[in-house]
Amino acid sequence: MEKGIKKIPKSYLIESAVFFILGIALFLYAMINHYSGIAKEWKMSPYLFPVLIAVFLVLLSVSLYSEGKRVSGQSQEGATPKIKTVFIAVLMMLGYFFLMPLIGFLPMTAVYLMAFFYFLGERHWIRMILLSAITSGLLYVIFDMMLNVMLP
What we know:
152 residues; mainly alpha; 5 helices; single chain
């Protein structure tokens, strides 16, 4: 291997490629079926949700690839989650589930995401606030406004 070039672990490459191919295939499937049928609005199309899933699959594949680049050359020992970490994550999710009806979708989702980012090791407050607000807002727009799904 040349000096300065990091080798991405094979598992990251395989997973990234699989999710990328699945995302592109699902996107093409949804596009072909949406435009080959009766003309209808996207928000009423049964193929809108597969398009959204396809976009998230492609984003996941890019994330896995970049994570592979980040961990290349590092020891993979201790990479499996510890039971305490899993337990805390499950408690946080249960708290989110039970508090969301009381507080509301947008504020509770933003607070939950900020807490989870902090739990995962993120310490840049501006980044945490922006990611939480943008993600909560996007979820609201996609599900409440575009798909007409009632949120708590």
